[in-house]
Specification:
Radius of gyration: 28 Å
Number of helices: 4
Distance between the termini: 95 Å
Strand order of the largest sheet: 1-2
Shape: elongated
Number of strands: 2
Helix content: 55-70%
Length: 98
Amino acid sequence: IARWQLINGYVFAAVSAGLIFLARARLCEFLGIGARLRERHADRERLRQAAAVFDCTREGVLVTNHHGLIVHVNRAFIEITGYQREEVLGQQPSLFKS
């Protein structure tokens, strides 16, 4: 009888763990967590591609924040203007008016 209780307890624990796993999976699916993770991965891939295009384009490009300060420039910008990245970061684009 003790052996049967041990086996019965093991089966109960295994079934309980399986049900908890299934319930958790269903809850995550219901909440859309899986879809959000896939979207986040797709967003990261799009950002990676955009960064590659930004850095490889032959056009000089600078990016400003909402205060109008330069936060990023690409390689072409450095080659065209002769300014180094550190010289322009935090400056306003009006720096280039002559």
